[in-house]
Amino acid sequence: MVERRSRWAALIILLSVFLIVLSSSAFAVDKVLDVSRLDQREVWLGEYFAVLEDPGLALTLTDVLSPDIARLFTIPQATTRSYGYTRSAYWLRLTLRNASGKPVERMLEFSVPLISSIQFHQPMADGSYQSLITGNATPFATRPYPNRLFVFPLTLPAHSDQVVYLRLQSVGAMLVGGNLWEPQAFHDHEQIDYIAQAWFFGIATAMILFNLLLFFALRDVVYLLYTVFAVCTVVAISAMSGLAKEFFWPNTTLWSSIAVGISFVAMLAAWLLFMRRMLNTCVNVPRTDWVIKGFIGLLLLFPFGLAYSYQTFILPATLVFFATGIMMLSVSFYCAVFQRQRMALFFLIACGVFMTNILIAMLFANNQLPSIFTSMYQSQRALITYALQIGSAMEMLLLAFALAYRFNLIRSQAIQDVNQVNASLSARLAAREAELIESHEKLRGIEHHQTLSDERQRLMQDMHDGLGSSLISALRVVENGKIGEGEVAQVLKGCIDDLKLAIDSMEPVERDLLLLLATLRYRLAPRLESTGISLHWAVQDVPALDWLDPKNSLHILRILQEAFANIIKHTQASEIHVATRLEKNGVVVSITDNGKGFDMASAQQSGGKGLSNQLRRAKSIGADIQWRSTHEGTCLSLWLPQFAG
């Protein structure tokens, strides 16, 4: 019995010793960082932070300095720690040592830009603490060092230890991590960091402006949707990286905390609208298109919920983000694989790259990412900022290739359509040309027959009115026995002249008035010589008359023949002068004699038809005829228009 009791006592002692050892390990002292012995540009502080959760948000600096609360701090196993979306505040304790004999300056960089509130407490030489309150929900001017991240300059006196406290509280994901920098190394890193940020935003700006110009040039709404998506992406990335707080809205409070969630909602909604248009889902996958519309409507409701209570709605929004990504990947995979859409392949790769980075960031923010993956990154900044920027840049470039392919496809289709239309138009034009040629030949045939008929009718009418009338008159006079042989000869000569005149009008004068006048001269010259009248020909070159056809030529010849006949019969002239000149956009033919002249009024009242026939013929061809007669002679002026009226 005694032996058994001694065994139990020994076991209890061993158990007590184990518990004491375990307790001393659990409440081990913080890991001290000697900043004077740093042999590298930066030190990752994840393993040096001691962490204390404050779920009641009631602890103050005085409380955490008390021994009872101080021993509750723990050192996490993971160097990068995420506590997800929590309403608790977290206290960090960092112990720094300067073992050198001179003061040391360092830069404490807290590498998570979305912490809503950060209280920084640094010990002073008299044992008190200097406190500073800043954060994403406070104005940017509250930061002790102007940077997109939270940077706190530190000065450690020679041969001293300092315990720095930080209190963190955020409406977003609670991420814990930071770096301690040598000042010059930090400034070099800061410059490179901003250059990297500028690289991403430069690419994004170029994409936005290029596609906006394409939209204005082509009026294709798909380029506008891509521009809206790219703008929302830039806003989301700039808000997540802290650049928006520094440059766009430095003095906002609530908006700075919820801008990331709302901008991501807007980005995904714009992406879905862009995908619907790009892949033509309303035609290719009409049933799924209704699901896409439902997701768009659901996403557009979340900004109101996030503005009302960010921490209440951010987890449902995260689930919807994840479901949206799965749905987008599924739709693009179906269109790429089963419908053989080349644009869907670009979209699938771009969506896969970007959604993979978003998924990693979401899992990390909710503390669901295995440590094997987090150890691949030196800090969460590289995980949730650079990864998203690289992913979004790759996504925008891939979608730009998709848009370029779409543009080339539309261009090729347009060229093919134009070629088809041209071929169709050529065939129709050839058919129409054949129809027109056939119609033209028919019209020419009809016109030729009509011309022959009109000319036949004209000749018949002219023969009837001219030669026929003269022959009938001569026949009646001969039958009555009232005319001598000489007079009969004159009548017959007049009939012959009428016949020759009709024949001369049929000669092809090619709109040449002088050629027509030469024909008249050839016919009348012998008769004038037989009567002792000399003919003086003083014509000059005149323009061609486009209306001078056989019908109108006969009218001119009749007018001039009547003038010569009147001179021979009535004026007793010895000379006749024929001349031409240009006047009032036309040509004037004048016939002047040196006879005794006549009175115009008496001639018109005498009942003779010569002058009236001349007036009628001149009017029919749009010409004008005038007489000027004195005791020294008579002048007939026939004005002919150059162009048909």
TrEMBL record:
Keywords recorded for this protein, A-Z: Kinase, Membrane, Transferase, Transmembrane, Transmembrane helix, Two-component regulatory system
Pfam families: 7TMR-DISM_7TM, 7TMR-DISMED2, HATPase_c
GO BP terms, alphabetized: phosphorelay signal transduction system
SUPFAM superfamilies in UniProt: ATPase domain of HSP90 chaperone/DNA topoisomerase II/histidine kinase
Segments forming a coiled coil: none
SMART domains with a match to the protein in the record: HATPase_c
Top-rank taxon: Bacteria
Protein name per UniProt: Histidine kinase/HSP90-like ATPase domain-containing protein
Originating species: Candidatus Dechloromonas phosphorivorans
